[in-house]
């Protein structure tokens, strides 16, 4: 009987730690472009996938040679979701992005799953205003 009590207490503590971590970690990873932040958000079941939008008016923060020997560029952009909430995301591109364009970026927290150039009309109007003022 004692072993069941210890096992139950262990499961309870582990559950509290896991659930607490899942709730707290998204706040700790927000606007962090590190690989660790991206990995944490990618496995956290409470972090949802969403599309955010950005303007391509920033220069790459870093240029480097990728694993296949090709040039790659790292971008850190301020993005806005459909509600107008801002968040900074970091991602790599295999080419320089043209200035003055719009991107739709699919994210799971700080983890960028995909991105693509979109027409101005595809960006919600309130988001376009935020991008233009940034």
Describe this protein's structure.
This protein has a single domain, classed as Beta Barrel (OB fold (Dihydrolipoamide Acetyltransferase, E2P)). 34% of the residues lie in helices and 33% in strands. The chain has three helices and six strands, in the order ααββββββα. A three-stranded antiparallel beta sheet has the order 1-5-6. Strands 2-3-4 form a three-stranded antiparallel beta sheet, covered by helices on one side. A hairpin with a 5-residue loop joins strand 2 and strand 3. 21% of the residues are buried. The model has no long low-confidence stretch (mean pLDDT 82).
Going by CATH, the homologous superfamily would be Protein of unknown function DUF1093
Main sheet: strand order: 1-5-6
**How is the CATH topology named?**
OB fold (Dihydrolipoamide Acetyltransferase, E2P)
SS-derived structural category: alpha+beta
* Stretches with pLDDT under 50, minimum 5 residues: none
Number of strands: 6
CATH architecture: Beta Barrel
Query: Strand count, sense and closure of the main sheet?
Result: 3 strands, antiparallel
Question: Average pLDDT across residues?
Answer: 82
How much strand? 25-35%
User: Number of DSSP helices?
Assistant: 3
Quaternary: single chain
């Amino acid at each position: 009987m004692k072993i069941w009590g210890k096992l139950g207490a262990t499961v309870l503590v582990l559950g509290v730690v896991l659930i607490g971590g899942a709730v707290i970690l998204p706040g700790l990873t927000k606007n962090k472009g590190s690989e660790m932040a991206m990995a944490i958000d990618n496995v956290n079941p409470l972090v949802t996938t969403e599309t955010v939008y950005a303007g391509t008016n920033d220069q790459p923060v870093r240029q480097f040679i990728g694993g296949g020997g090709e040039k790659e560029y790292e971008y850190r952009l301020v993005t806005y979701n459909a509600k107008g909430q801002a968040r900074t995301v970091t991602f790599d591109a295999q080419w320089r992005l043209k200035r003055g364009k719009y991107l739709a970026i699919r994210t799971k927290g700080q983890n960028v799953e995909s991105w693509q150039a979109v027409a101005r009309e595809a960006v919600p109007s309130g988001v376009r205003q935020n991008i233009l003022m940034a």
